[in-house]
Amino acid sequence: MRILVINAGSSSLKYQLFDMTNESVLASGRVERIGMDSSIVTHEPTDKPEVKDVSEILDHVTAVKRVIDLLVHPEHGVIRSMDEIDAVGHRVVHGGETFKESVLVDQDVKLEIRNLFDLAPLHNPAHMMGINAVDTNLPEVPQAVVFDTAFHQSMPPVAYLYPIPMVLYRRHKIRRYGFHGTSHNYVSQQAAELLGKPLEELKMVTCHIGNGASCTAIMGGKSVDTSMGLTPLEGLMMGTRSGDLDPAIVPFTMNKEDLTLSEVNSMLNKHSGLMAISGISSDMREIVDSMEEGDRNAKLAFDMYTYRVRKYIGSYVAAMDGLDVLVFTAGVGENSVQLRDAVCSGLSYFGVKLDPELNKQRSKQARIISAPDSRTKVMVVPTNEELIIARDTYRLVLEQEKQENYEI
Ligand code: AMP
């Protein structure tokens, strides 16, 4: 079975085509600047050279058509016809309280995703455009949706409610939802597998640290708390996002600087975090390089960033009354030796002891980086959100086929 995974944004669309017989990627790519006059398409077939072109792609329907044309192209393609695409899986950021797991798309599901537009105004409408574009181009092909929030629906009320008037939860569903759920779920399963221990018996903190960053407390394979909240702004300090701060800073800054709500919103999402403190970059590679060259602002940004990761880990040890495994994943978590070292060096009280040599080794494989006598195991597990979307889609389509066979 071949599954096309799509991550549709408002002006971009990323894709990967999987062959599920061996979970290999046949091709991947992206369409950028959709709706603008010069859209850029980058198509990367696994065993052929990359193709890049600039053309006018005015909407998502045309973008999906372009992707299909490339996948079946006689020279650059990887399949003979579009009939070889058996299903499409979409990443959807917000599933609200409705979606506790991935589902196949039907009219009710579409309606529900639309009802959640308010909670993710930048993301869910774009995902819906992606779903509709597939409907138009591949009307017979089943589609599934995999939600960033779904894994965190196991959180108890004590973790997901905010101490503000309950009417706001009842009326507007203001609560913690959490994000990166697909990644936290995947790396926790991989970590248990590598350790050879049942997930049900483990207390884990998974740190997904990329451009966006979040920590999750996972007990018995279930998310019991996570650092992102109603939106992906809460929690850790990030590349350009502030993460946690005193909410009173918002009205105070508006007043003192004569800023509008949308200006403050933009400040906290796009002009804060590593970028704001270092004054250099939101990219951890540049922060570390500048820090090593003696830049004091870069050092302050790095120290604040890692301090906040450590504080979250500490609070989740308290939430779970223990810790067996600490997992690092995503761009920074998988690659930054310095970040892992700085975070772990303050966690000795929790039985964390990093092996400096193992921490330095570069590999694309999941691995243990703690010393053999470390009470808590520390691991690096590369995340693969597209693969999980493909697996969930595959499982749902097979289940539906089985169901239809019974009905016959
Ligand atoms: P992601 O959002 O998971 O794709 O992560 C992207 C981020 O990972 C980039 O913005 C970089 O800051 C970071 N990153 C990638 N490679 C490295 C590296 N070798 N060291 C530190 N940070 C890295």
TrEMBL record:
Pathway: Metabolic intermediate biosynthesis; acetyl-CoA biosynthesis; acetyl-CoA from acetate: step 1/2. Keywords: ATP-binding, Cytoplasm, Kinase, Magnesium, Metal-binding, Nucleotide-binding, Transferase. The active site is at 148 (proton donor/acceptor). GO terms for molecular function: acetate kinase activity; ATP binding; magnesium ion binding. Mg(2+) binds at residues 7, 385. Mg(2+). Can also accept Mn(2+). One of its GO terms (biological process) is acetyl-CoA biosynthetic process. Belongs to the acetokinase family. This is Acetate kinase. It comes from Paenibacillus sambharensis. The lineage of its organism: Bacteria, Bacillati, Bacillota, Bacilli, Bacillales.
